[in-house]
């Protein structure tokens, strides 16, 4: 069983490729609407945030707002939960970075020259060429900014993908066939060990959601990582009393998963 993540320039044909692969293999197709349904499950407020912030370049205020941090963790949680279901195509949302290092995940990027993309947008969305150019360039800038803000990585970094497909001289059908073949080759790589890593990453995202959304304390800096067997909570807190409260809540949220707390005091 395998997972496909698709990053694409606007109008490149990446969406059509993702949909074609999902339909031909019977994989679930996860896009913006799927993620928004997950956010709705966390409360209507987060669905509203998702509609406004999804793949949008956040303002300075938004970047440092507690709600944005919860929103970012919810996105990671949604992608990881979908990946854990297996046999899924995940469109955008930085899925390639969230699922990095998992051998059964095939991470692709789809690009095309601007003129080809504009032609596709004009036909697909019934727009004039000037509007299509503006939309393509703005959407690409917003996606790059969104990914960098969320993960500190550039949207178009070559090392973020297993394959990059340039649609200048290829059709959607040709690329879809190549992706299907590569994806099927990874289906045997989903081992119990890999499932365990996915569980840990999902638990890490849930822990971040729980801590950031808890208004009884404020943590200026927080991250939750994994070392393959446990969760590692790092952050900057204000005093020993807050340290105790944060660690107690983190251990409650982690349940039976081992947790290491590395919290430092702000000077």
How are the SSEs placed, and which strands pair?
Blueprint: E1 3-8, H1 14-25, E2 28-30, H2 32-41, H3 44-53, H4 60-63, H5 66-85, E3 88-91, H6 95-98, E4 105-111, H7 114-125, H8 129-151, E5 163-166, H9 172-185, H10 192-212, E6 221-226, E7 231-237, H11 240-254, E8 259-265
Parallel strand pairs: 1-3, 1-4, 2-3, 4-5, 7-8
Antiparallel strand pairs: 6-7
Helix pairs in contact: 1-9, 2-3, 5-10, 7-8, 10-11
Number of domains: 2
Write the CATH architecture name of the largest domain.
3-Layer(aba) Sandwich
Mean pLDDT: 89
CATH top level label of the largest domain = Alpha Beta
CATH superfamily of the largest domain: P-loop containing nucleotide triphosphate hydrolases
Helix content: 40-55%
Task: Output the CATH topology of the largest domain.
Answer: Rossmann fold
Structural class call reads: alpha/beta
Q: What is the helix tally?
A: 11
Radius of gyration computed on alpha carbons: 20 Å
How many strand segments? Answer: 8
Shape: globular
Side by side, the strands of the main sheet go 2-3-1-4-5
Question: Could you list some keywords that capture this structure?
Answer:
single chain; 267 residues; alpha/beta; Rossmann fold; Histidine-containing Protein, Chain: A; five-stranded parallel sheet; three-stranded mixed sheet; 11 helices; 8 strands; 16% strand; globular
